[in-house]
Write a structure and sequence with these properties.
alpha+beta; Creatine Amidinohydrolase, Chain A, domain 1; five-stranded antiparallel beta sheet; 10 helices
């Protein structure tokens, strides 16, 4: 569980940013897993309820988690962070939750109340925003999601240790899958085998053209080169992505050549992860590398850390790549009816990027 020193550092950075913008208490809305839990987890060190959690973070007091109902007390006592208070509404209605949020914000406002700000991975639900503005007597709750997400991008040594721990979980799951896999199992069976070894995760297994689609009943047969993606968050919320290729039996020359090309593309792409460059520039380099061997199949990568983060590695995102941040790259090649992809997570430093895993550079073999 995330410790007090790490949380205190995060709170200080967030408060400084809010103060500079003239903003006060923030209500954070979290409603799901990927792309929806990051800010709540960043401030509290625990996963929010995937069905909806509010966190109130002020300029003085530590954040407070507002549970959805009094019946959830046991859940938060077992799985919440003991360093962060959890409070409960007086009733089980959603209005009671919003009233408790408003009470916490009001309690932190002095005679010259600062502006309350709302943030969430997909924004504050419109009806909740409307009701909270009524309860607080304000015209609007400005969204500071981009501001706080920018702070969250920069990792401390403790954060990098957490991401390393998450990568090791993904590697161990992939290693155990390779040890137990057999020709004839389906994509779904393979994905389920990996998922059984992990907590919060997304697992993709594809024996055909890989376009980031869900696993199917298609069997993994002799001669297949299979794309295996493991995306996982550990208990502290650190999200990493790892993708490798697994070959079943004797593989035809064209398939093996494509597999080697996508691994080499990832290696070459790493050389272009340079602090001070931009996400759009890295996307252009990846586009050039992939088009030299086939056709790009889908997105090249994005920021990771606590949840997915900016930037998106695309031609339209000009966010600087900065030392202290972390990203994942997952280039893919589509050629004819074949498509393969690999993925790795990187820590950016002044002089380049450090891959967190060596697994994507090896093509695994199943006899």
């Amino acid at each position: 569980m995330t410790g007090l020193d790490t949380l205190a550092e995060r709170w200080e950075r967030a408060r400084e940013a809010l103060k500079n913008e003239g903003l006060g208490p923030v209500v954070v809305c979290a409603s799901g897993v990927l792309g929806r839990y990051g800010l709540a987890n960043y401030l509290t060190g625990s996963f929010p309820d995937p069905k909806g959690t509010y966190v109130v973070f002020g300029s003085e007091a530590p954040p407070v988690i507002v549970a959805r109902s009094p019946d959830e007390r046991l859940r938060w006592e077992l799985y919440g962070n003991a360093l962060v208070e959890t409070t409960y509404p007086t009733g089980s209605s959603h209005l009671a939750v919003l009233e408790r949020v408003a009470e916490l914000i009001d309690a932190q406002q002095d005679c010259r109340p600062p502006a309350a700000a709302a943030a969430g991975g997909r924004g504050l639900p419109w009806k909740d925003h409307q009701r909270l503005t009524e309860l607080l007597g304000v015209a609007n709750l400005p969204d500071v999601y981009p501001l706080l997400n920018q702070i969250k991008r920069f990792k401390t040594p403790s954060d990098l240790q957490g991401m390393g721990s998450a990568i090791r979980m993904a590697e161990e799951a992939l290693d155990r899958f390779v040890a137990q896999a057999y020709a004839g199992m389906t994509e779904l069976e393979a994905a389920a085998m990996i998922e059984a070894m992990l907590p919060t995760c997304l697992v993709y297994v594809s024996a055909g053209p890989y376009l980031s689609q869900a696993p199917t009943e298609r069997s993994l047969d002799q001669g297949d080169v299979v794309t295996v993606f493991v995306e996982v968050a550990n208990a502290d919320g650190y999200w990493v992505e790892l993708g490798a290729l697994v070959a079943f039996g004797r593989v035809a020359g064209d398939r093996w050549t494509l597999a080697e090309k996508i691994v080499d593309t990832l290696r070459q792409a790493e050389r272009h992860i340079v602090a001070g460059s931009r996400a759009s520039g890295l996307a252009c380099e990846l586009d050039r590398l992939v088009k030299a061997t086939g056709h790009p199949a889908f997105g090249y990568g994005h920021g990771v850390g606590i949840d997915e983060e900016p930037p998106v590695i695309s031609r339209g995102d000009h966010t600087p790549l900065e030392a202290g941040t972390t990203i994942t790259l997952h280039p893919s090649i589509l050629k004819g009816d074949m498509s393969l992809a690999v993925a790795n997570t990187y820590s950016l430093h002044e002089h380049g990027a450090v891959p967190l895993s060596s697994h994507p550079y090896r093509i695994y073999r199943i006899p």
